[in-house]
Design brief:
single chain, alpha/beta, Aspartate Aminotransferase, domain 2, 14 helices
Length: 392
């Protein structure tokens, strides 16, 4: 049987990790892996997470299974953090193994409910989106999103493409901090997108992986809340990996907004899908998140540290834009300061990306996506000078 298997394409980021690991140069810089790092290159455990873990260690009395949907308190806390109040009667939800698990379960739900629906993705998008859709054998289409010339959004192209969406199709939207580009819709553009999708009878599906990393915890939820208020049905896949810094705990949630009369059936189907894929979701990270969100002191400390993380990335963006302006004697990289979140696609060629790796020990994905959080105040000038040196 197994001799019939063919080699699968290697993940480009995992390949990059291996190349970086094997590079002996002490000055090498990793801008490929999508995790937050502090100025020392460490992905720290947040203070509130440490405090919650200590409390959990002291008070936890069992490691028995949680429910198929996860703990209700976690799901409720996440619904409130993302959407605010007023959604208890509309929100069916399940805990998942990270945000990727939430995306997979959402796609499984779409396939179960409407197997003929086309899932529309921004061009570009996170590579796992099309990968999972293809694996599930679902229909897929793209809408234009990124303007390579301006490093902003091709909004006219986006609107033209979304006008082709059929009734019942699903449109995947990045709630904030678009991955891989860093370019985000503004409030007026979100309203226009909502108008188009309403007119087409489409179902919004929001990937919210970076709430709190862009303009603030509440500000980053604004677009998702706009969509939730406008549409009778919405799918939201959210991750706690980044904003709580619990990457390895694999903590996510899938929320399906629906009519209150249909909520119980949707909830049952979400639990059914969990059972088919992994039975009970991981609980440790979810329990820590619940403890933090339910304890005012822990919540305040978490929000303060999250804001420090956000401001650090904004400071690095501003510094990088200024250094690139000096190094290249042009303003063509000013967009870096206006992008949000961990990533920006800086717009150099794959050949120049390879030069940066080979000649300067600077590692980034071939499409020139960089992880801003992989920098610090000392490495920003080094990156800027290297980009200028390769003709960027």
């Amino acid at each position: 049987m197994l001799e019939a298997l063919n080699p699968q394409p290697q993940d480009k980021i995992l390949q990059l990790i291996a190349l970086y690991r094997d590079d002996p140069r002490p000055t090498k810089i990793d801008l490929g892996v999508g995790v937050y790092k502090d100025a020392t290159g460490l992905t720290p455990v947040m203070r509130a997470v440490k405090a919650a873990e200590k409390k959990l260690w002291e008070t936890e009395t069992t490691k028995t299974y949680t429910g198929l949907a996860g703990e209700p308190a976690f799901n409720a806390a996440m619904v409130t953090m993302i959407l605010g109040s007023g959604y208890a009667d509309r929100a069916a939800s399940v805990a998942t193994p990270g945000g990727t698990g939430a995306i997979r379960q959402a796609l499984e739900l779409i396939k179960l409910a409407s197997p003929g629906a086309t899932v529309w993705l921004s061009n570009p998008t996170w590579p796992n989106h099309p990968s999972i859709i293809k694996y599930l054998g679902m229909k897929m289409a793209e809408y234009r999103y990124f303007d390579a010339a301006t490093r902003g959004i091709d909004f006219n192209g986006l609107k033209t493409d979304l006008a082709q969406v059929a009734k019942g199709d699903v449109v995947l939207l990045h709630g904030c901090c678009h991955n891989p580009t860093g370019a985000n819709l503004d409030a007026a553009q979100w309203a226009e997108v909502a108008d188009i999708l309403t007119a087409k009878g489409a179902i919004p599906f929001i990937d919210l992986a970076y709430q709190g990393f862009g303009d603030g915890l509440e500000e980053d939820a604004a677009s998702t809340r706009l969509i939730a208020a406008r549409f009778p049905e919405v799918l939201i896949a959210a991750s706690c990996s980044k904003n709580f810094g619990i990457y390895r705990e694999r903590t996510g949630v899938l929320i399906a907004l629906t009519d209150p009369a249909r909520r119980a059936v949707v909830q049952g189907n979400l639990a059914y899908l969990n059972r088919q894929n992994f039975s009970f979701p991981p609980d440790h990270g979810a329990r820590l998140v619940t403890m933090i969100l339910e304890d005012e002191a822990l919540k305040a400390d978490w929000k303060a540290e999250l804001e420090d993380v956000r401001l650090n990335m904004l400071s690095l963006r501003t510094q990088l834009a200024e250094e690139l302006r000096r190094a290249t004697n042009s303003d063509r990289y000013d967009f870096v300061a206006h992008h949000r979140g961990m990533f920006s696609r800086i717009g150099i060629t794959e050949a120049q990306v390879n030069q940066l790796r080979e000649q300067h020990g600077i590692y980034m994905v071939g499409d020139s996506r960089i992880n801003i959080a992989g920098l610090n105040a000392g490495t920003v000038p080094i990156l800027a000078a290297a980009i200028a040196a390769v003709g960027g």
